[in-house]
Amino acid sequence: MSRKLTLILGAAACTLLCGLCISSQALAQKLQLPDDTGKPEFVHNCTACHLASLVVAVKKTPDDWRKNVDDMAARGTDGTKEDLDKVVVYLDKYYSLQTPAPSEAPHPAPQSTLHAPTTLSPTDRERLKQILAEPGTAQVTASNSKPHTP
């Protein structure tokens, strides 16, 4: 009986470990780091201990990136000062508070809305007031709307 239990527990442990390994690899593959100066240094010095996606999950100011990288360097990374400077520049360029992440680039407006009027015509305003006055709809005032001029 104990031999059977040992085999079952061993199989469960192997399954769990394999699942954890596969899921961490999948998480690591989701993030595409931009190819640029500093990427190899970032990968070498940061991803030995951290998933890249976790490092860049919170955008920071250049000073905050510097403090964070210096703190990690004090904990034992083997990067040179020049390597760590490249890491800070890389993180600031692609993952700072001022820069949108590469996967979060702004999307252009759909073609159908590019030349749409930004105000309602008087007829449309009246129709909107009628719709909103119907029972069960919200009340909105149109005091800030401008007349439509084609």
From TrEMBL:
Record field: compositional bias (Polar residues): 110-122, 138-150
MF term (GO), any: electron transfer activity
Coiled-coil annotated spans: none
Signal peptide: 1-28
Location of region: Disordered: 99-150
UniProt entry keywords in alphabetical sequence: Signal
InterPro entries noted in UniProt: Cyt_c-like_dom_sf
Protein name: Cytochrome c domain-containing protein
